[in-house]
Write a structure and sequence with these properties.
Blueprint: E1 2-7, E2 14-19, H1 22-28, H2 34-37, E3 44-48, H3 63-77, E4 82-87, E5 91-98, E6 101-108, E7 117-124, E8 132-141, E9 144-150, H4 165-184, E10 191-195, H5 201-212, H6 217-226, E11 228-231, E12 243-244, H7 245-251, H8 259-267, E13 273-274, H9 277-283, E14 286-289, H10 292-297, E15 311-312, H11 319-322, H12 325-334, H13 347-352, H14 356-374, E16 392-397, H15 413-422, E17 425-430, H16 438-452, H17 455-460, E18 461-464, H18 469-478, E19 481-484, H19 496-502, E20 506-509, E21 524-525, H20 531-549, H21 552-570, H22 572-583
Parallel strand pairs: 3-4, 3-10, 4-9, 10-11, 11-14, 14-15, 16-17, 16-19, 17-18, 19-20, 20-21
Antiparallel strand pairs: 1-2, 5-6, 7-8, 8-9, 12-13
Helix pairs in contact: 3-22, 4-5, 5-6, 14-18, 18-19, 19-21
């Protein structure tokens, strides 16, 4: 019997939902045959270069890692046999701000510090360099497992240039080393999900094993294709890293035993160069984008220059992790979601039963939780923050990359000041710049200097240092309106906005990523045919958000509209259901 619980860290209230075993979930999603297709020794195996699971000591770099952690947690809650194969990075990056200057520093971590069990060593071969010995660590959590590979010189996540030798070494280690690790612990995948192109060497390792054991190359390719899913999070093929054949000669080919497989891989190069996504395209039958828009517009081509078709499985979230516990209890008490955290058949009618008093109560509890977390965090001046319960709070919380446009709200300072003063509002800004992104580092420093030079902004705009999942969760729970303004067509999905809507917040957004799954989008939409028009639209919607929150009738209507439209998208259990139904069709 499995059981999962969620608890409010401030009130210690909790709720336990019991699921006897995975067959209950399989029956609920019309896939009862999965009871015989998935097992402890034949699990669903999920390969990822990053996972953001702070409780288990594994720190990722952003949304990709958060999604991976949510997927595993959802599988555990639903008792689905599920194995995550991922590196354990022994060095993790942190950020601090002092005198309007960012400093990055590292802290060490060890698998043993988080109850991982040492299993064995595996070897990665290289040409012209000493072979690398990777340590395998294992941790079991209910029906799920972590299988991690690690060594002291493995480096940090996304260390060095994306097309450099070290990055390729990390990917080769994860693929070939991770596949060896699975064999050491007696796991044979029923299906493999490759979370982005960086994990493709797991499929190459499986192909190599089949051919080395006597299977014909083309039969082996067909087998690997039928049992492997490629999940893509990148909109443009040209944005993917590219490697020279000399790098493969040093780091990839020494780990391939089959001459036929090595020859096949060499055939994929063009003018001595290869984007590993070409291998992913050739070795997977099932391919998915992570939102409807992403699957429709992703521009990838195969070897014949034919456009690659992606199936849409929109990202969801583990609601029990990201949503205020009392709000989750409200959803269950009202019959909005079932014990699997799936929307009930009549969820729309059930959402209509949520009252403005319920919404106001959840918002008050959420503000308390946000202030609890902020008391132990630092703003750009190194000080903790306390937000008055009556203050309106905007937040922008996501990676500081150009297409997400964290600077948009600072384009017209007079407009921003007016909103902050007229509505007793505060603006929380959080997110890290990728290592080496000098342009966005300068944008961040310019924003901080702009804030510092203005007494109103200095009082009401707070940049939160060292953004992580704890801070992201607190802001989702305790702010009033989230700002999500990526350039349309550049966000694959995003999940921060899902956490905001699930926590009964207003969303101000462009029609991009997963938000665009619903047409027209069901939130305060930022529109415009030019950049200036979008800036104007953002400020207009910030005004609207403040007015809505100040009016019971308007707030209740907008919150219910958002939740009714997006709850099926938000549900991580829906996401796992969609993956299982895609990978295990009824006629398979």
């Amino acid at each position: 019997m499995g059981k999962y619980s969620y608890a409010d860290t401030s009130s210690n209230q909790s709720s336990d939902i019991e699921i006897e075993d995975a067959s209950e979930f399989y029956d609920a999603i019309n896939r009862s045959a999965l009871t015989h297709q998935l097992s402890e020794t034949r699990p669903y195996v999920y390969w990822t270069l990053e996972i953001y699971d702070k409780q288990n000591g594994i720190k990722g770099g952003g949304g990709l890692g958060v999604l991976a952690a949510d997927t595993r947690r959802i599988a555990e809650q639903l008792e689905v046999p599920f194995v995550v194969v991922t590196p354990f990075y022994r060095s993790e990056s942190h950020q601090s701000i002092s005198n309007m200057t960012q400093t990055e520093y590292s802290e060490s971590a060890s698998p043993q510090d988080y109850s991982f069990e040492y299993i064995d060593e595996v070897t990665i071969k290289t040409e012209g360099f000493p072979d690398a010995s990777l340590s395998i660590f294992q941790k079991t959590l209910g029906s799920t497992q972590f299988i991690t590979i690690s060594e002291p010189n493995f480096g940090q996540l996304y260390e060095s240039d994306g097309s450099g030798d070290h990055r390729l070494y990390q990917q080769v280690s994860l693929g070939f080393g991770g596949y060896q690790a699975l064999k050491r612990v007696g796991v044979k995948p029923a299906v493999i999900q490759l979370n982005e192109t960086a994990t493709i060497f797991a499929a190459i390792a499986r192909l190599d094993e089949l051919c080395s054991n006597g299977m014909n190359l083309y039969e082996a390719i067909v087998y690997v294709r039928k049992h492997t899913l490629y999940t893509n999070h990148t909109l443009l093929q040209a944005a993917e890293p590219e490697f020279h054949i000399s790098q493969f000669e040093k780091l990839v080919f020494p780990n391939i035993q089959s001459a036929a497989v090595a020859h096949w891989v060499r055939e994929q190069f063009t003018d001595g160069m290869l984007r590993p996504n070409m291998l992913a395209i050739e070795l997977t039958e099932a391919k998915n984008g992570v939102s409807k828009l992403h699957a429709r517009v992703a521009n990838f081509r195969d070897k014949n220059n034919e456009r690659v078709k992606f199936h849409a499985v929109t990202n969801g979230i583990d609601m029990d992790t990201w949503v205020l516990p009392e709000t989750m209890q409200l959803y269950r008490d009202k019959g909005v979601i079932d014990k699997f955290s799936l929307p009930t058949e009549n969820y729309k009618e059930r959402i209509a039963d949520i009252s403005i008093d319920d919404i106001r109560q959840m918002k008050s509890l959420g503000r308390q939780e946000l202030n609890r977390v902020l008391a132990n965090r630092k703003d750009q001046y190194g000080n903790p923050i306390h937000l008055p319960e009556e203050a309106f709070v905007f937040d922008f919380k996501r990676r500081f990359v150009n297409y997400k446009r964290p600077y948009l709200a600072f384009e017209r300072l007079d407009s921003l000041r007016q909103i902050l003063v007229d509505y007793n509002a505060h603006y929380l800004l959080a997110g890290k710049v990728h290592q080496g992104d000098h342009m966005m580092y300068q944008h961040l420093m310019d924003i901080l200097k702009t804030i510092d030079a203005d007494p109103i902004l200095r009082e009401r705009v707070h940049y939160l240092q060292d953004y992580d999942e704890e801070l992201g969760r607190a802001m989702s729970i305790g702010a009033d309106a989230a700002i999500n303004v990526p350039v349309i067509g550049l966000e694959a999905c995003g999940t921060s906005w899902e956490k905001d809507i699930a926590n009964l917040k207003l969303l101000i957004s462009t029609s991009d990523g997963g938000v665009a799954d619903i047409k027209p989008i069901a939130c305060l939409e930022v529109t415009g045919s030019s950049y200036d028009a979008e800036v104007s639209s953002l400020y207009t919607n910030m005004h609207k958000a403040c007015q809505i929150v100040g009016n019971d009738f308007m707030l209740e209507g907008h919150i219910k509209k958002q939740l009714t439209a997006y709850l099926p998208t938000i549900s991580g259990s829906r996401m796992l259901k969609d993956y299982l139904k895609f990978l295990f069709p009824e006629n398979k």
